[in-house]
Amino acid sequence: MIQIISLIVIFGVLSAASIVLSGNRGLISGDISGKNFLQLLLDIRFILAMILAVGSRFTFIFINNSLLKFPNLANNSTTITTFVTASSYVFIIAANFLFLNERLTVQQAVGATLVMIGIIVMMR
Question: Which end of the chain has the lower number of beta carbons within 10 A, N or C?
């Protein structure tokens, strides 16, 4: 179970870093068509974000594989992995707060808390 928790943390960090890099206002603001789209594709932040996104996909596979080793989770391992990786929202929200200066409303914070409670309930 420690391996699964470690993989979930790795997934969250990779996802958050990818989103922070690709969510940078300087990168995504303005017209994203034609020449600007090509510049986006060649931007080092975008390239790094995509590499991190691929890393998170591999981590998803490793989590899924780890869940297959638990008989009570094996039959639904991909679905459970999908819900468990939703815990990356915590990492993403924290990273967006720290690096992109984004803030949650009370309603959004309550919703995020409910998602996390649901994930905990599913893993029991």
Answer: C
Entry pTM: 0.80
Under a CB-based contact definition with an 8 Å cutoff, are residues 96 and 20 in contact? yes
CA 1 from centre of chain: 20
* Helix (DSSP H) and strand (DSSP E) numbers for the chain: 8, 0
Q: Which two tokens stand for residue 81?
A: 């992995």
Q: Residue 83: what residue type?
A: F
Determine the Cα angle at 84 with ends 116 and 82, to 5°: 120
User: To the nearest 10°, the Cα dihedral for 19, 20, 25, 27?
Assistant: -70
What domain range includes position 32? 2-123
- Considering its fold, how many domains does the chain have in total? 1
Residue 54: the pLDDT is 98
Q: Give the phi and the psi of residue 101 in degrees, each rounded to 5.
A: 55, 35
Helix (H, G, I), strand (E, B), or coil: what is residue 116? helix
Q: Which two tokens stand for residue 49?
A: 């974000």
Instruction: Report, as ranges of residue numbers, the positions in the chain whose pLDDT lies below 50.
Output: none
